[in-house]
Amino acid sequence: MTRIRTAFAGIALGSAVLVATVPVHAANPAPTKPPPELAQYMADARKADAIDNDEARCKAYPDLPGNLWRPGAAQGRCTILRAPAWSLDEIDSLLATPEGVAELERGFAALLDGHYNDQSQREQIFISLNVFDGSARAGEVSQRWLKLAPKSAFALTAAGIHLGTSGWNARGGAYIGKTSKDKVQRMGEFFAQAVPLYVKALEIEPRLSVACYKLNGIGRSSSSQLEQYARAHCMKVDPDSYYLAWEWITSAEPRWGGSEDALRSAVAYAAARTDRNPILGALLGEGAGDRPSMADNYGSVVDELAAAARMGPSAGLTSMAGAGYWNKGDPWQAVVFYSQATRFQPSDADYRYARAAVLYDYLHDYAWARADMLEAVALEPDNPKFNYLLGLTTEREIGQKEARPYYKRAMSGDWRQRALLRHCQTYFVPQIQQEAQSCSLGLVDEFPQSGDAWQVRAWALVMVDDPAASEAIKRFEAVATTDDHRHDLAELKSRLRRDGAPKTGK
């Protein structure tokens, strides 16, 4: 039996992120050391990642190596991560007090003044009103505020944002040509309710550019006349806003009906105003990055994406460059660029997952990968892919028992087989062999055509010198494919034949 165990110990079950990994009792490899030119960057990035505040973490982060960012662009972009002045619950609580409405009016008026007069408060009025998302809760609070203060431009805008966001949610993320008529109609119904609220808000407070910014977005999707009206108003009252410049760049992109010339013009508009608002410098790579961002394989255009990311601190461009480097087999550059993506958009669970996958699979930095996956699962608790990788990192960093809850939560959809496979392997220790037997038996019952499943079953039987191991190995040989174990099948069968069947199997 010793020779059979040795043979199976030499078989990796494949890419850690896609299928089961090496046997759980294998020692953790040491984290791979970064190349000398990236050592300081990686150390500084890891140190910054430990800061438990999005804006402070972003400001402490090292900038992208080789960047051509305008002065103040990255630090300014970090201020957009600041928490809103009030949460939705805090606004609701204020509305329940006698002076709450007046306090909100004074507070939002101060944010509006700060937006125009204090660079440190730039764009904060946008952030604070954006707590009114498409949720039912936001709808309830916004309507309550509007009922108590029907002539408040801020309350009107809050109600409009909730309705407008609900419209975008109803449409979904597909291009308009690929969106069903029912979805388009539902979107239009929400927009029709939001537009008059925004218009009224601008009549009361013309400087409230949040309202014309939101109107511009609705017009881009539904009415060129409305878009022109909103843009003219916005350019008049707030020509240097980051959010407005971002909206105009989006409108100019060919994929949304613009043109390359219009896109270059919109980026140039932002570039000309970075001395007035440094945050605009974050937009300067969007023109160069637009065409490569449409590629099917980012690895084929990674040089273009990386060059665009070096023009301006962008979460989207750095994430795409990170994916490109990963596709090309350069894990260190992938982590460098993915780290900038998580820096500027820490609430994007996919960015966290992407970096964690590289850290786990290629660089063996299980602690850092696990930290990313804790954040990703906190954002999307029911995502099986995220729970699976959190299970892997937890198993490596803490232990098998602690990993099992995550594997259980990952047992759904396309991830059920690999999560169950890995869950069974966590019982491959002498003290809990009964669980290993029952789990592996259930695995092959549910997935009888899986080579990985039969390999795990054979492992469990070999560990207790069960004669049935011979049959399990034969079943493994019969159904295994190169996709099951990511090894050459002929070589694998040769090893099994060389080592022979278990003596107790005769």
Account of the protein in words:
The chain has 28 helices and no strands. It has helices at residues 2-9, 36-49, 54-60, 73-78, 88-95, 100-117, 124-129, 136-148, 153-171, 181-204, 209-222, 224-237, 242-252, 260-271, 286-290, 302-309, 315-327, 331-344, 349-361, 366-379, 384-397, 400-409, 416-425, 433-446, 451-463, 469-479, 482-485, 489-499. 46% of the residues are buried. Helices cover 65% and strands 0% of the residues. By secondary structure, it is mainly α.
Topology (elements, then pairings):
Blueprint: H1 2-9, H2 36-49, H3 54-60, H4 73-78, H5 88-95, H6 100-117, H7 124-129, H8 136-148, H9 153-171, H10 181-204, H11 209-222, H12 224-237, H13 242-252, H14 260-271, H15 286-290, H16 302-309, H17 315-327, H18 331-344, H19 349-361, H20 366-379, H21 384-397, H22 400-409, H23 416-425, H24 433-446, H25 451-463, H26 469-479, H27 482-485, H28 489-499
Helix pairs in contact: 2-18, 5-6, 5-8, 8-9, 9-10, 9-11, 10-11, 11-12, 11-13, 13-14, 16-17, 17-18, 17-19, 18-19, 19-20, 20-21, 21-22, 22-23, 23-24, 23-25, 24-25, 25-26
